[in-house]
Design brief:
alpha/beta; TIM Barrel; eight-stranded parallel sheet; 10 helices; 47% helix; globular
């Protein structure tokens, strides 16, 4: 019987496009979370939150087409780097306002069943104190939106540190959002530390990370963060990677963990059902 294999974070852009999902499927992949990109990828320069609807609508249409190949779910992103892109021309306070409005709109798409989660976070690069504080405000707002509608938030942040993630967990708590509804995209295999912190790690599937994560426990998701950019064709990891790594779990006797990661954890975090063919 078919095994369910889920990639928790993938993009489709201007390289393989839907062919990437065919590669994913042919390697054994069955379910994928497709995350929308920065406004610049859509040649949109938002001047108000409503302008993100163009991006969200395009992404949802893409996900509809993706569902003809595998089971695909939409995640609507207001990427934290938007504060730099928009702020340089409109001012950072205005950029933060636009991002908050866009997150509220993204939440309405989730309420209508067109998407299953939203994405927020804070910059992974050095910024001024003003931009950092505004970014934390935007992220907290995303958590508030998620709390209101009962969805998960994928977060793009600085590189993992216990202190940094603990701080983010505190922001989620302040917003009233359950910390296990906050999914740290591009996580290391620090499964035990994430369990202590409360956030849910989405482990990047390279460098032995998946096996290392499984040796610590079963409270994690797995992703490639495939970008599908023709200028970086293999970045971050190719679409076949998660199926390969999950199959390794089965081969090494981690069958229960493989199922937990690809089915049970997904259903718990996102509040959705995955049809299991086993």
């Amino acid at each position: 019987m078919e095994r369910i294999i889920t990639d928790n974070h993938m993009h489709l852009y201007n390289h393989l496009k839907l062919r990437a999902l065919k590669q994913f499927r042919d390697a054994g992949g069955t379910h994928v979370f497709l995350v929308s990109l920065l406004s610049t990828h859509y040649e949109v320069f938002p001047k108000k939150g409503e302008d993100f609807k163009v991006i969200f609508d395009k992404h949802i249409k893409l996900v509809e087409r993706a569902n003809e190949i595998v089971r695909a779910f939409a995640v609507l992103a207001v990427h934290p780097a938007e504060i730099t892109i928009l702020g340089e021309k409109l001012g950072y306070t205005k950029a933060a306002e636009i991002m908050k409005d866009a997150l509220e709109i993204a939440g309405k798409y989730v309420e209508k069943g067109k998407a299953v989660a939203i994405k927020s976070g804070r910059p992974h690069y050095r910024v001024s104190k003003e931009v950092w504080n505004l970014s934390n405000e935007v992220m907290e707002y995303a958590f508030s939106v998620a709390k209101q509608i009962g969805c998960a938030v994928q977060i793009h942040t600085e590189s993992y540190s216990f202190r940094g993630m603990k701080e983010i967990a505190g922001i989620a708590k302040k917003a009233g959002l359950r910390q296990d509804k906050v999914v740290k995209h591009f996580s290391p295999p620090a499964v035990k530390e994430f369990e202590e912190i409360g956030l849910f790690p989405s482990v990047i599937a390279g460098n032995g990370n998946v096996i290392n994560a499984a040796e610590e426990g079963d409270r994690f998701l797995v992703e490639t963060d495939y970008i599908d950019d023709k200028n970086r064709p293999g970045a971050i990891l190719g679409p076949k990677t998660v199926p390969k790594r999950i199959k390794e779990l089965y081969e090494k006797g981690y069958e229960d963990i493989a199922r937990k990661v690809c089915v049970e954890n997904i259903e718990k975090v996102y509040g959705i059902e995955i049809t299991d063919t086993e």
